[in-house]
Structures are given as structure tokens and as C-alpha cells.
Amino acid sequence: MRTADFDFALPDALIAQRPARPRDSARLLVVRPDGLDDRIARELPGLFRPGDVLVVNDTRVIPARLRARRGDAAVEILLNRPAEGGGWHALVRNARRLREGDALAVERAPGLPVQVLRRLEDGGVLLDLGPDPDAVFSALERAGEVPLPPYIARPDGPLPEDREDYQAIFARRPGAVAAPTASLHFTEAMLAALDARGVRRAAVTLHVGAGTFLPLRGEDPRAQRLHAEWGEVSPEAAALINETRPAGGRIVAIGTTALRLLETAALGGDSWQRPVRPFRGLTDLFLLPGHRFRSADALMTNFHLPKSTLFMLVCAFAGTGRMRAAYAHAIAEGYRFYSYGDASLIFREEAP
User: Fold this and answer.
1) What is the pLDDT of residues 283-299, one digit of tens each?
2) Is residue 140 within 8 Å of residue 66, measured between CB atoms?
3) Which 3 state secondary structure label does DSSP give 343?
4) 146-201, pLDDT tens digit by residue?
5) What does DSSP assign to residue 4?
6) Which of 93, 92, 210 is CA-nearest to residue 148?
7) How far apart are CA 161 and CA 166, in angstroms?
8) How large is the greatest C-alpha to C-alpha distance in the chain, in angstroms?
């Protein structure tokens, strides 16, 4: 297996710079074992059966990008997650210049104390932002920017509407630096239609970290490690998921973040019928072809970058040949790619 096996040519014109309006007008490519079907996101409720359960990620994106100064030098901070034992794990541009004990002055939040505790082996930096988490989140609301992916061009910084556009309808628990983008296509009308059809929802939390923006380095994906992200599958969510298949329903992961967390929780599951256990903690699970999925029968996700960990994930879920064919169809038909782009709904082979 090589990283180059997951490469494909993508025209720059297909990289979405703004979301579809309204959200549910985005295109939806349905990928089944027997073929492809071009749909619209608002048709999603009709593609499910009563008794199916959608597993959604209720993380909320925080304005995690801060502009700061170390003396006269400009520094850009992307907060990743609170670190175990205190402090914040962050990615910092120009991190090589930082030294333990350096104080950073945050623009538009002069009262927020930021001190470098140490540089980390994974390329990140451990920062001390003071003892009060509420003060940190308040400062982020004043001074932080929505951490849009680098392929969304905003030369002068995020637009005012990005704060709402880059937030999913399910967002409840603050902590992510990237949106679970499959959820960006849902509207209140779609949720009402799903409820009327008897499709239920289980909410889990995976705080998507800054590592999701980082490219793979090296030609052997199996030698790579992902940045750890914090997640939780509550006992209530696990119970709802585990009763789905015995009752004849299907488990549908809404987004790769939900699927990664479900597969992490499935490492302790006891059977195909009851796939997951409650989970709370960090996960760095990297899903590659050859992984035996236990937790989901279908996956809704946007279209991903060439040679990315997320394209590798969808290939692992449904087969590399099938997903390469689906992506070739999407490119030929002008589907919009990446965070603000269109979506796919991928059904696996029938479960045993």
C-alpha cells in the first residue's frame, strides 16, 4: 500500500469556496454496491428506512485561530485541544522560534495570558492559557477566527457568514477546530422529515483537531500516525446504536468523524449485533483498507482530498476501486469538493 495509490487529479474549479444555499440544495451522490445515483441532499430522508439510526457528531467549532506576537515577531496559533494535565495542545506557525517560557501577546485579547510550556514531539506546542476555561472561551469569541481549511481562500480572513456556515445544525459541545462537514447539509425541514419517517438519531462527540488539515508525509500510509482527538460515546448513545440491528435497522455514520469514533468504541464491542461500548477519551485510530468495520452500515461524507487520510477511510469502508470510480464520476459531473462542497452517501455490502 502506497500513499500514491490514493491520488487522483482534481480541477481547482471544483473546490467549493462557499456552501450551497440553502444547505439542503447540495448534490448527493449515492454509492451502492450495484451502482451510483445522482440525488440532492434534501432527498436524503427517502433513502432511509424506518428504524435506521443516524449517528451524528454534536461537536461545536470554536474560533480557534489566534493571531499573536512574540516581541516583534508575528505568531499564528491554532488551538487543537485541552491537554491532559493542563494547558492546550496547539499548532503554531513559526513554532521553531519559540522557547519554553516565552510569553505571547494575543491581538484583540490582551488580557489572555499565553505562555509556551514546551514544544512537543508531534510538532505541536503546549501552551498555558491560564486556569479559567471560561475566560479562554470568552477570549476566543472576541479575538479568535473560524479555522477554515487552507483550501478555502480567504485572503483577508474569514467572512462574517463563515461563523454560521461552518457550524453544523447538530453543534452543541464546543471544542472542535474543524466542522464535521457532512452535517452541514442538514436543515430543520430535513430533520422533521427524518423524524416523520421513523429514522432516529444518536449524538456522539468527537472534537475534530487541527491534525485533520495536515498532509500525510511519506509513501507508506501504515507508517503514519494521526493526531489524537477527544471523543465520547455516552451509555445512552451506545444503547440506541446497539439496539438498531437486532430491530432490523441500519447504523448510518454522518461523517468520517462519527465513523472513526464509532470504530474506536467498537474495539470493545461484543458482537456485530451490539457493536459499540460507551467510550470517553482520546483516539488516533487510522482507518485504512483492510480494516474490518463493525459499527456502521452506511456513511454520509463530503468529497475528500487526494492522498488524504479521509479518502483512505472511504476506500477502506467501501473498497478502493468502487470509491475511485465514484470520485471519477463526481469529477466528471462537476460535483463540488471538500468542506463546503457536495456529499456522498455510501452503502456497504449487506452485513452478515
Assistant:
1) 999 999 999 999 999 99
2) yes
3) strand
4) 888 889 999 888 899 999 999 999 999 999 999 999 999 999 999 999 999 999 99
5) G
6) 210
7) 8
8) 63
Q: Give the separation between CA 207 and CA 57, rounded to whole angstroms.
A: 9
Residue 352 has pLDDT above 50, yes or no: no
Q: What is the pTM of this model?
A: 0.91
Q: How far apart are CA 309 and CA 221, in angstroms?
A: 8
Which helix or strand (DSSP H or E) is residue 206 part of? strand 200-206
Residue 21: CB partners within 8 Å, gap ≥ 6?
none
Q: Exposed/middle/buried for 101, CB within 10 Å: 0-12, 13-18, 19+?
A: exposed
Specify the residue for cell string 513554532. 95
pLDDT at 215: 65
Whether residue 22 has a cis bond before it, omega within 30° of 0:
yes
CA distances 78 to 69, 88, 94, 106, 272, Å, are 14, 10, 12, 12, 39
- Cell numbers standing for residue 6: 490514493
Q: Where are the alpha helices (DSSP H) in 267-347?
A: 309-318, 320-332
Nine-digit cell at 28? Answer: 448527493
Q: Which of 65, 60, 61 is nearest to 143 (CA)?
A: 65
Q: State the amino acid at position 299 in one-letter form.
A: L
Check the CA dihedral 69-70-71-74 and report its sign: negative
Residue-wise pLDDT tens digits, 196-233: 999 999 999 999 987 766 667 778 888 777 778 999 99
Residue that has been written with the C-alpha cell 475511485 in this structure: 324
DSSP 35-61: EEEEEEGGGGGGGS-TT-EEEEE-EEE
